Amino acid sequence: MAAAIKLAIVDDHPLFREGVVRTLEQIGGFEIVAQGSSRDDALRISQDQQLDILLMDISVPGGGLSAVEPALERHPDLKIVMLTVSEENQHVMTALQSGARGYVLKGVGSRTLAAILRTVAMGERYVCPQLSARVLVDLSSQSTAIEKPDVLAELTSREREILTLVAAGLSNKRIGLQLNLHEKTIKHHMTRILAKLNVSNRTEAAMTLRDATEHQHPPVGHPA
């Protein structure tokens, strides 16, 4: 028998939260190890508990979206799924760019939710179909509206720091030692850097940094 998926749920509506917990327990295959109602709860739970999945609303006090990156900074293997009523494209994109593995609307059926969580636990990503289609359209319109986008704009300061060291030829292990971070954390950051830059390897990421830097600071004697 497969091990139960260890899950925590953070939502500031107790009745809804308890309903999700009860439903998943009845379906089976899930072990609810913690519950919370705020961003601080999410960070505390992700620190204190051994979780497979953190299921979290974006509208909890303190902001669920702002909990994603710090939680993953501490535990890169944690899979975070947003369960929310918000259908705003920007919320979806922010969640995914921050590292969330899923974005699910609260109208979803209980068995569908359980199936989504199992899929995410196995390493897949999930965005409900109506939102994923809209986000793709939104991204397409943005790319045509902006002639010369700053390709590094989506990177956090930590990601830019790591990318600079990658471009200098350092390995993940050496970067981890220099920044006092676990090698696994560096690998997690690199996965997000590659996704944000839409490149497939470290060499392409380093070239993207070089090209962007040259565009911002052209060599002396060349027009800006």
Detailed description of the structure:
The chain is of the alpha/beta class and 224 residues long. Helices cover 54% and strands 13% of the residues. The protein has ten helices and six strands, in the order βαβαβαβαβαβααααα. The chain has helices at 14-27, 39-48, 65-74, 89-98, 110-121, 129-145, 157-167, 172-179, 183-197, 202-216; strands spanning 5-10, 30-36, 53-56, 79-84, 102-105, 126-127. It has a six-stranded parallel sheet with strand order 2-1-3-4-5-6, with helices on both faces. Helix 5 (110-121) links the parallel strand 5 (102-105) and strand 6. Helix 4 (89-98) crosses helix 6 (129-145). The chain is globular. The model is unreliable at 143-148 and 217-224 (pLDDT under 50).
Q: Tally the helices.
A: 10
Strand content: 5-15%
| Helical content (DSSP H or I, runs of 4+) | 40-55%
Number of E-state strands? 6
Query: Quick check: average pLDDT?
Result: 85
Shape: globular
The run of helices and strands is: EHEHEHEHEHEHHHHH
Low-confidence stretches: 143-148, 217-224
Task: Tell me the span between the first and last alpha carbons.
Answer: 63 Å
Structural class based on helices, strands and sheet pairing: alpha/beta
**Sheet with the most strands?**
6 strands, parallel
Side by side, the strands of the main sheet go 2-1-3-4-5-6
